[in-house]
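User: Show me a protein chain along with its predicted structure.
Assistant: Here is one chain, sequence first, then structure tokens.
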Amino acid sequence: ISTELAPDGEEFYYRVGRLYDEYGVDWYVHMVLDRAYILGSIDRKVAETHDEIKKAEDRVDHDLTAARTVLYVCVVAVAVGLTVLSIILVLRIIDPLVVLEGEMAAVAVMKLEAVDTKRPLSALQEVRLMQVSFLQMIRNLVEYRNYMPASVLQDDSDDDDTSAQENDLSSIDASR
């Protein structure tokens, strides 16, 4: 079978066959079939199938884009939520430590009354243990302070400032 094109571009299937009969007559049989007539419905179904596949691919692409967008929004929302949660947790952890640091600074200069011994302890075990130890230290210092002479407990920061200024002046004189 060979495919031939008609002058208008239409396809035909063409075949020539030779037959011999018992009477010695040679027959040439020509078979011509219009391709559109035989395969037209199949071609239409193939075209429809291609269109349906294309539409399905477009839907899948659209759905994937929408899913990616939702995924990105969820990832950003979770990241922001976790960041806010971590900031809140850090502040809750650091707040008692900052208070404890301020109280330690007051105790360093023997201002034991500046410490709030009635405040609630932290919910965090490590911070609570530090607070308990610090409060015990304050109780012990208050008790020891009762036995110390008042001259030892006086603020000697004026002496420290004067000696620091003298050291600065002597170092300036030495450099000249």
